[in-house]
């Protein structure tokens, strides 16, 4: 019996003691609780309210919260303007992210060299980030105006570009109620957005380049690798986490873009530069179609979540 009792005592699991709340714990909870309550109300509470309104019949000044199901969403996906918005957002996002990454990498690699006046060029590239999208939109609206700005110089070369007033669709084909392709007018908006946000990409890549030890490059040079091979096969692969971060942040900006479009072009002729943000603003605050506007907002939220949520999950897994 004594042997059995000794064996049982050896395999007895230790009892977990409950941690007592100390003053430090209570103080931390006291500091965090107001923020948690405010975020719960003014962020997640309003998201839930927007989702509830999007399922209602509130499409006038008089509130009507009777349940409408997915009627507002079905209407949007069959609407010519909203289909144009989805096309424009997709094209804008792909071109915007692509050029920001490519130009940002090239400029960062150039600034990473031992150049004179490196700080001056860095400040020049970073300066547009200090401006708001509204200012950028007004400036580029004047620069790309078909009758003024850059066109005064291009006309001497025999070129007359319509820029954001062009209604042509490149490589277009019929899709739903619209012609799916690359709207020429959206290219002007991409130019303005890339001009402003490339500085952010340059800053991210410069930070990544600064974190790569010089020993890695020296070892590659000793093995006979050229500078081009070093950047192509060693440096750029090491910068892949930076690229992922840039893609996520730029996608978040492009999918909810509003102020640049609104200040520079507006919806445009035949909605060639329209985006869901502008459509939501005009539908909700000018047309008083609150349920339709809420449905557009929920679709924008879900489109951003497609990029953000997987990134956050992978980041948490990487930390754990």
UniProtKB/TrEMBL annotation:
At the top level of its lineage, which domain of life is listed?
Bacteria
UniProt record similarity statement? Belongs to the binding-protein-dependent transport system permease family.
Q: Per UniProt, what is the membrane topology?
A: Multi-pass membrane protein
Q: Which residues cross the membrane?
A: 26-49, 90-111, 123-143, 180-213, 234-255, 289-313
* Subcellular locations according to the entry: Cell membrane
Quote the protein name from its UniProt record. Answer: Sugar ABC transporter permease
Q: Which SUPFAM superfamilies match?
A: MetI-like
User: Could you tell me which Pfam families the record lists for this protein?
Assistant: BPD_transp_1
- The species this protein belongs to is Neobacillus kokaensis
Residues covered by the ABC transmembrane type-1 domain:
86-313
For this UniProt record, the keywords arranged alphabetically read as follows: Cell membrane, Membrane, Transmembrane, Transmembrane helix, Transport
